[in-house]
Amino acid sequence: MIWAMNAAAPAKPRSLTRETLLRVAVGVTFIVALSSAITYWLIYNQLEQRALERLQEYSHQRTQLHEARFALGKAFHEVIKADLIRRYEQGAPPGARQSASQGAQRGTLEARRRFDALMMRYPDGAWRNRPEFSDITRYSTGWIHKDTTIDDELRRRWMLFYDISEHYSRLVTSRFVNFYLMHPTQMLNMGYDDPERSGHLEWVKLTPADYAMNEREHFTAANAALNPTRQTVWAGPYYEPVYKQILVSALTPVYVGNEQIATIGSDDLLGDLEARILHSDIAGASHTVFRRDGRLVVDPQYMPRVVASHNGFSIAESGDIRLETLWKLALQGDDTQIFGYAENIDQFYSIGRLSSTGWYLASTLPGQVIRSQAFRAVQWVLWVGIASVALLIASLALILRRQIAQPLRRLQEGIRSAAAGEGRAVPTGGNDELGHMAAAFNSMLGKVSERDAALRDEKERFRALIEHAADVIVVVAADGTVRYASPAAQTVLGVAADALLGRSLLVEAHPEDREQLAAAFQAVVGHPGEVVERTEFRWRHADGTWRWLEANGTNQIGNSAVNGIVINARDISGAKDAEAEIARQRENLHQREKLAAMGSLLAGVAHELNNPLSIVVGRATMLQEEAVDEGTRTIADKIRTAAERCARIVRTFLAMARQRKPEQSAVAINTVLNDCVEMLGYNLRTAGITVEKQLAADSPSISGNADQLHQVFLNLIVNAQQAMETQPLPRRLRITSDRQADRVRILIADNGPGISPAIRTRIFDPFFTTKPPGGGTGVGLAVSLGIVESHSGSLTVDCPPEGGAVFQVLLPIQNQEEQLEHRQADVPETVHSKGPSLLIVDDEPEVGALLADILRREASRIDIAATGQEALQMLGKREYDAILSDLRMPEMDGPELYRQIEQRWPHRARQVIFITGDALSPTVQTFLAGTGQPYLEKPFVPAEVRAIVQEIVSAATVRRQTVAARS
User: Fold this and answer.
1) Are residues 845 and 872 in the same domain?
2) Where residue 830 falls among pLDDT bands split at 50, 70, 90?
3) Mean pLDDT score of the chain, rounded to an integer?
4) pLDDT at residue 918 tops 80
5) SS3 827
6) How far apart, in whole angstroms, are the C-alpha atoms of residue 539 and residue 576?
7) Which of 6-15, 16-25, 726-735 is predicted least confidently?
């Protein structure tokens, strides 16, 4: 019966309060644990970042500090080296008037006298200062190995070392423990030891006579085999038995030409260096200095072994994985500072490189230190969380029981009673609170259903519009994070719309446009509900290119349905490209107009120079031919050569203006290169540039225009000079010529900054220049490339790994047939013995007299007419073999004279040679082409005048002989 009653009794209802409290406790505990973990992670990341920053800052500061000290030592050495070279090259005392041999002999005797007065050989065999000069506080002291052979050259160099040491010893030892000079091959040492730092130790007296200096690294580190660059180097730590301390040496080789005459040295105490490096305010950090070859310089753990090794202790010998890891990281990185976390040794590290010494300064901090700090910082979060959980559970228990559990229980009992009394569910009508609540809930549920249906329809409609729009539509949060992107992002940006979610709008924009885009974004944020004016910016496409977008935005953060900023972006890359192309074409047109104006100006100047240049060339030639003494002929030859060069340059200007291909002839490349170097010699010397020429003696000739090739090589050399002007000394320009198969190769190499790969392919583009405004037009290399290609050659540029730029010019070699033709063309034909009769027509008396003097030896008779009328009168009285007429004359010009001759004496029209300086006139060009007669362009040279006259005279002779044979 009891069992039956228990079975019929209802099951004990579950306690919502208990279950709620249990779930809250579990949830809050999980939150506390998660918060503690996140807090630990955040604190650890902050501590890690701060540790790296402090390590990096310390490494950078220490690197800069010691770099400045080492750079100061190098600067001292450079000053001393320059003075040592100067004194060594002077040899004899300044102001000596005796001959070179007498000066050398006197210098040798003086060196002997001074050496004997300063030095003496001690009983142990070593040479040292005499006792009266061995006071280290007053004099520089020297030691010479007992086996060293003393000759006159060594005495002269020894006394030079003494003078240099006396002059600079106090300057260098103000920062370093000592200063000395060594012979590159002999074991000897002259220098000055700082008394205070050395403890008044007399190194010269205490060093044994057979001290094996050549076995020390500081003796050989600066020699040519180990230091081919001839720069200041730093030897590793070594134990000095006299000082009984570890020293670090700075060594600078001194060369005169290719001979090393000395090595400048100064030492730093490793103890002082160690103290400066290891001093740190970073708790738990360790600092190490090592060389690239793995030898330790400073390390707190291994300093005893560094000292005990005397000649250095390497990382490989230590077997320390921490040091080996730092060494590998330093060798794998470049010369910049590197930092990070090495997992295999659990160390944060920062490694900087001292560029002057080549040493690496590594600072490390164990990861355990950071983790301990993070754990200590997060403990309070854990304990506060545990206390908060207990307090929260107690408060919730009281609140749930009084405010929720009891009212719900009463409501449940009322609903159960009402349902049981009426036999149906709780009615939705009635005036009681439950009925009103049920009716209100049912009404609300109906309205919500209707609104949900309408919202679904409207959402689908807007989704269809947005997803099929060509523009990219995005919704961005107030912090710039993308919350929605339309499918057009795949078409416009090459990125799936989902891939943009969570990414920052500003981060994805071009760096140059981020500031403008941020300002526009802030403008949208500050104007809710308004459409902000369009903004143009660049966005990275998935293929790596940048696309121009035009966007406008509306602030809909206050709209709960959007809760963000709506941005409509359109791809305008095509329009931007079109604008850029139009601008580029407009700029090219402007540059072409400027070049055309410049060409017209040059042509006008060239035309004005024609007549005076013709007179200078002709008179110089006549003076050379008629001069009696060799000196006058030499001077005349130089004047003629320079004037003919000016004439060829003028012709080049005119040819460029006419856009005609310049005349080509056999050109000796070495001669052109030597002329260019000579022309720019002053500028190169004042710029501190050393020119090295390696021109092949058997370099063959090429077929080309010498003046244009001058222009090419002048452009290349001037560009190299300008590139090296901002570089430190030494500045070197190497010019090489040799033969490569059927071509001549010319290399113009400099040790300047080189050309970056980004612009290397554009340097030959017209109007492209990297020079500042006013520094260049950007046409030099383009013109040079055009000239070389017009010679069937090539012009390329390369930048070797060691730095600088190398321009290579390849030009085809002139074949044997062309050389033979040139040689045959240079041989003048023989004029008949009687000599021709010539008529010269020119309104300028100087030009007419010049032509007459040039042709006087070949002609039997020369008449000069100042006008066309006068020329016609002379032609009516006498026969001439050739008629030279200027085209531009007053009253009757050259074309009118030619037409008169053609009407009156048709056979004489073929004897006319025209003279013109107006190469730009289309009328003149049309007239000359119509007549087919030869012409001379001003300025002319005598050889050309004689050749053309000879050609006309020979043709006239042949015609007369033909007529005579027929008759």
Assistant:
1) yes
2) very low
3) 77
4) no
5) coil
6) 14
7) 6-15
* CA atoms within 13 Å, Cβ hemisphere of 59: 30
Q: Summarize pLDDT for 299-319 with one digit per residue, the tens.
A: 878 877 877 776 678 888 888
H or E, element range at 364: strand 359-366
Question: Domain boundary residue among 806, 827, 848?
Answer: 827
Token code pair at residue 98: 């005796």
Q: Say how far apart CA 868 and CA 894 lie, in whole Å.
A: 7
Residue 273: the pLDDT is 66
CA 631 vs. chain centroid, Å, equals: 52
Our count of domains for the chain comes to 3
Instruction: Please give the pLDDT value at position 606.
Output: 62
Supply the pLDDT for residue 833. 45
Half-sphere exposure of 633 (CA within 13 A, CB side): 6
The DSSP 8-state label assigned to residue 786 in this structure reads H
* Residues 837 and 803 grouped into a single domain: no
Alpha helices (H) in 119-173, listed in sequence order: 152-172
Note the pLDDT of residue 652.
57
d(CA 344, CA 764): 51
User: CA 734, CA 715: separation in Å to the nearest integer?
Assistant: 15
Q: What tokens were used for 281?
A: 């305010």
- Residue 290 falls within a domain, yes or no? no
Same domain, yes or no: 558 and 706? no
* 3-class state of residue 951 by DSSP: helix
Cα separation, 296 vs 292, whole angstroms:
9
The length of the chain, given as a count of residues: 967
> 548: domain range?
460-571
Joined tokens for residue 803: 């730095």
User: In the predicted model, is pLDDT for residue 594 greater than 70?
Assistant: no
Assess if residue 26 is contained within a domain. no
857 and 812 in a common domain: no
Query: 84 pLDDT band (50/70/90 cuts)?
Result: very high
On whether residue 443 sits in a domain, the answer given is no
CA distance 31 to 249: 62
pLDDT band at 561 (very low <50, low <70, confident <90, very high): low
Residues 834 and 816 in one domain: no
Instruction: Say if 362 falls within a structural domain.
Output: no
Torsion region of 804: left, alpha or beta (phi above 0 gives left; psi -120 to 50 gives alpha): left
* Cβ atoms of residues 759 and 775 within 8 Å: no
User: Does residue 97 carry a pLDDT above 50?
Assistant: no
Strand 935-937 relative to strand 313-314: parallel, antiparallel, unpaired? Answer: unpaired
DSSP secondary structure, 452-512, as one string: HHHHHHHHHHHHHHHHT-SSEEEEE-TTSBEEEE-THHHHHHSS-HHHHTT-BHHHHB-GG
**Pair 805, 852 in one domain:** no
Number of separate helices (H) and strands (E) present in the chain: 31, 32
- Sheet containing strand 805-812, edge to edge, reads 689-695, 731-740, 743-750, 805-812, 794-798
pLDDT category, 350, cuts 50, 70, 90? Answer: confident
Alpha helices in 400-432 (DSSP H): 406-422
Of the candidates 257, 249, 342, 328, which has an alpha carbon nearest to the alpha carbon of residue 294? 328
Expressed in angstroms, the distance from the first to the final Cα of the chain is: 171
Residue 162 has pLDDT above 90, yes or no: yes
Cα separation, 173 vs 167, in Å, equals 12
* pLDDT value of residue 828: 38
Beta-strand (E) ranges in 46-100?
A: none
Cβ neighbours of 914 (radius 10 Å):
23
How far lies 571's CA from each of 94, 229, 368, 512, in Å? Answer: 78, 55, 52, 18
Residue 804 three-state SS: coil
**Under DSSP, is residue 783 helix (H, G, I), strand (E, B) or coil?**
helix
Q: Can you give the three-state secondary structure of 867-912, one letter per residue?
A: CHHHHHHHHHHCCCCEEEEECCCCCCCHHHHHHHHHHHCHHHHHHE
State how far Cα 332 lies from the chain centre: 23
Last residue of a domain, one of 774, 793, 827: 827
Same domain, 864 and 908: yes
Task: Check: CB of residue 128 under 8 Å from CB of residue 108.
Answer: no
Tokens 């230590």 label which residue? 318
Contact between residue 813 and residue 702 where contact means Cβ atoms under 8 Å apart? yes
